[in-house]
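Request:
Um, any thoughts?
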Amino acid sequence: MKDVIINRGTRFEGYNAAYRNVKLNDTYIGLGTYIANNSVLRRTNIGRFCAIGENVRTGLGLHPVHDFVSIHPAFFSLGKQAGFTFVKEQLFEEHKYVDDQKSYFVKIGSDVWIGNNVMIMDGITVGDGAVIAAGSIVTKNIEPFAIVGGIPAKHIKYRFEEKDRQLLLSNPWWENSIDWLERNSSRFADINMFLSSIERDNKIRK
């Protein structure tokens, strides 16, 4: 973790890695998730076993583009982004949140792969198992197991058939213990084998 900047509000669940020049601010990183070089994540809730590429950005903030005469924060913000402000109260909400407590700007599910140079706008939820292509700008929520890409990011296809997606969501493997994952790791190379084993295990439990 060379040259990594992490504030006290950031938490790691375990088995994590953050590479060179990563900056984390009030962010939660789930079990097994790693973050590649030069990524800056602010107030982001990240699930388990995610692969976050290089130069990924969250917590980008908002500026008014309607009604207000200027987009400059000196006319609506107490943040003094340029070192000064003309206002005595906050006049514009500079971020969107994904939770009622206003703790996080972005929520990323588990088993998500985010390619290099991706920007995710405030208020966005990325579903479990999703893939975001390199260079994308995400402006809308992403469904579980969807593959998206582009500027703005658009749906390309799903990773699996709908019945398989539903079975995975109802049996989230990422919530199992490290011991379980290690014992069953050989199943992960084949989705059909993996889903068959889930169905078999469910029948045994019944």
